[in-house]
Amino acid sequence: MDKVSLDKEIILNATEEVIRRFGPDKANITDVAKLLKVSHAALYRYYNGKTDLWNAVTERWLTSLHAHSNDILKEDNPADIKLFHLLEDFAEAKRRSSVNDPEMFANYIKLAHSSMEVIEKSIEEGIDRIKEIIVQGISEGIFFTESPGQAARTVYFATGVFINPNTFEDPNRKQNIESVINLLIRGLKNPNK
Q1: Which residues of 27-58 are buried (b: 16+ CB within 10 A; e: fewer)?
Q2: How crowded is the C-beta side of 77, counted as CA atoms within 13 Å?
Q3: DSSP state, 7?
Q4: Residues 96 and 40 grouped into a single domain
Q5: In whole angstroms, what is the distance from residue 165 CA to residue 113 CA?
């Protein structure tokens, strides 16, 4: 076999390509090795098997999927507007992915049913982003809560229904998302403002 300079990024790129080509149910680590023209053993120097590699691919995909939320955190907006934008982005990111990158979305769904470690990390990152905005809102006098962490967790799970693929085709989806987000924001608002 040809000598290929491997690193984790090259392996992850190849794995994504294999998943997109064959789909998450048929793609396997042998396909990744063939694409890279290396032996199976070469991949095991970087990842402890298919599960480890697929988890890494999904984690990177989720990070990319939610990259826009980092921009939202930097917006020069009051917390209530920023929170609206963030929650709307959370709801729409996975729907967009299901349309624009269906194989990787299917891989995410498959992983969600078999290995929660990567999914739980992504959930905690989302909750942390919401908490950051809630804390900003408290300092601005817009939001009122004694427990920003618990409020962030509640807000995240209240909007979680919109990442379920069963809601993606709902003709009232956008209106439902906006209604739920507005209700949550009103619930966080300082009653004296």
Answers
A1: bebebbbeebebeeeebeeebeeeeebbbbbb
A2: 15
A3: -
A4: no
A5: 14
Q: Are residues 21 and 108 in the same domain?
A: no
**Residues whose CB falls within 8 Å of the CB of residue 157, separated by 6 or more in sequence, listed in order:** none
Strands, E assignment, the chain: none
* CB 78 within 8 Å of CB 171: no
Please, are residues 90 and 163 in contact by the beta-carbon 8 Å criterion?
yes
Per-residue model confidence as pLDDT tens digits over 146-188: 999 999 999 999 998 898 888 899 999 999 999 999 999 999 9
- In terms of domains, do 97 and 125 share one? yes
**What CATH code is carried by the domain that includes residue 174?**
1.10.357.10
- How much is the pTM? 0.85
* CATH number where 19 lies: 1.10.10.60
* Full domain range(s) for residue 42: 8-47
- Residues near 23 by beta carbon (within 8 Å), at least 6 away in sequence: 103, 106
**Integer-rounded Cα radius of gyration of the chain:** 20
**142 and 82 share a domain?**
yes
